[in-house]
């Protein structure tokens, strides 16, 4: 009897193992596109400044891509920001990047090299314009920046594009109406007060470069009102991608003291080119959406990546690989 029971036990164990293997195989077949082998090779991802959200997001996304595509070598390139990122992808220097929608549209409207090849992968999260001044500053509005030492971001950055438009919107020439400085989020916070009267930043919130000094530095945010954003819209072009919003009180609690900050925002897009392999782009799109919570635990703004809005990559049409993914998960 004990021998019979032993045989039955072994048979059940084998059956259980087989059933488990079948279930795992079905799960992998469902999770992985068409049951294919993961793409391999080398791709270049242009990010942003080292203290900015683009760089942090790129580092975390690379880690997630390694899990799904272990034979894919993802190389990160730091950059000045959105304007440089768009140019790099359009001209083939990089394969993927993150860029603000206004920078993408500006590049397209200028008819710059490779603009027609640009394609969207995913709408990611919003950048908030953050105009920072010392706590005891007399600057209360963008118009008060006249004659001040103002960091408007590095050349070819997205923040410089926005800062110059805001300054012109209040009648300030960004070259002669202020003392312009090229500091970004990596150097601006440390020079505020002694060498700078104000600096502009456009990024997801909270941005590490500001979050790190918020505990010990006395600074505040200057509001950007609805009327100024409306005035920018009236100038046409890429300004249609700006919208009024409030920076949430939870962004920098020790600075905001429970108050929201009126400002404007612009959406960020994950961008590639039409000639990038559709199968690779399909896999990458899947990883971006599946890793939202994991990346969002470290980059708060990444929590806002959502399947329902990811397909809206205006002003770019979707890349074929991204389109395949969205079709595969459509209810």
Structure description:
- 40% of the residues lie in helices and 20% in strands.
- It contains 13 helices and ten strands.
- Strands 1, 2, 3, 4, 5, 6, 7, 8, 9 and 10 form a ten-stranded mixed β-sheet that branches.
- Helix 2 crosses helix 10 (278-290) and helix 10 (278-290) packs across helix 13.
Summarize the structure.
The protein is α/β, with parallel strands linked by helices. Helix content is 40%, strand content 20%.
How are the elements arranged and paired?
Elements: H1 2-31, E1 41-46, H2 53-68, E2 72-77, H3 82-90, E3 96-100, H4 101-109, E4 118-134, E5 149-151, H5 158-169, E6 179-181, H6 188-191, E7 198-203, H7 208-214, E8 219-221, H8 226-234, E9 243-247, H9 253-256, E10 261-273, H10 278-290, H11 292-296, H12 307-310, H13 320-328
Parallel strand pairs: 1-2, 1-3, 5-6, 5-7
Antiparallel strand pairs: 3-10, 4-7, 4-8, 4-10, 9-10
Helix pairs in contact: 2-10, 10-13
Features:
about 325 residues, 13 helices, 10 strands
Give a quick account of the main beta sheet: strands, pairing sense, barrel closure: 10 strands, mixed
Beta-strand residue fraction: 15-25%
Q: How helical, in percent, are the residues?
A: 25-40%
Task: Please identify the structural class as seen in this structure.
Answer: alpha/beta
Would you report the number of β strands?
Answer: 10
Mean pLDDT: 90
Distance between the termini: 53 Å
Task: List the secondary-structure elements in sequence, H or E.
Answer: HEHEHEHEEHEHEHEHEHEHHHH
The shape, in one word, is globular
Radius of gyration, CA atoms, in whole angstroms: 24 Å
- Can you tell me the residue ranges where pLDDT is under 50 for at least 5 consecutive residues? 1-8, 17-31
Helix run count? 13
């Amino acid at each position: 009897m004990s021998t019979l029971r032993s045989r039955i036990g072994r048979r059940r164990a084998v059956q259980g193992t087989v059933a488990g293997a079948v279930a795992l195989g079905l799960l992998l077949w469902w999770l992985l596109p068409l049951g294919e082998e993961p793409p391999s090779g080398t791709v270049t991802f242009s990010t942003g400044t080292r203290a900015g959200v683009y760089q942090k997001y790129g580092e975390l996304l690379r880690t997630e891509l390694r899990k799904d595509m272990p034979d894919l070598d993802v190389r990160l390139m730091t950059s000045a920001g959105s304007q440089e990122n768009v140019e790099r992808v359009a001209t083939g220097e990089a394969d993927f990047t993150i860029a603000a929608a206004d920078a993408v549209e500006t590049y397209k409207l200028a008819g710059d090299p490779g603009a027609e090849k640009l394609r969207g992968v995913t709408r990611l999260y919003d950048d908030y314009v953050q105009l920072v001044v010392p706590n005891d500053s007399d600057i209360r509005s963008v118009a008060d920046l006249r004659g001040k030492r103002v960091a408007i971001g590095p050349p070819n950055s997205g923040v410089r594009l926005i800062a110059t438009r805001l300054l012109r919107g209040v009648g300030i020439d960004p070259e002669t109406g202020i003392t312009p400085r090229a500091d970004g989020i990596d150097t601006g916070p440390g020079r505020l007060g002694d060498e700078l009267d104000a600096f502009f930043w456009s990024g997801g919130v909270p941005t590490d470069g500001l979050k790190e000094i918020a505990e010990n530095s006395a600074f505040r945010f200057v509001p950007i009102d609805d009327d100024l954003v409306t005035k920018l819209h009236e100038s046409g072009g890429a300004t249609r991608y700006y919208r009024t919003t409030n920076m949430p009180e939870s962004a920098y609690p020790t600075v905001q003291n429970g108050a929201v900050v009126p400002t404007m925002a612009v959406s960020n897009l994950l961008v590639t080119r039409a000639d990038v392999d559709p199968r690779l782009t399909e896999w990458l799109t899947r990883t971006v959406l599946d890793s939202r919570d994991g990346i969002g635990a470290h980059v708060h703004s990444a929590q806002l990546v959502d399947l329902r809005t990811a397909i809206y990559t205006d002003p770019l049409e979707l890349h074929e690989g991204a389109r395949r993914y969205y079709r595969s998960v459509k209810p």
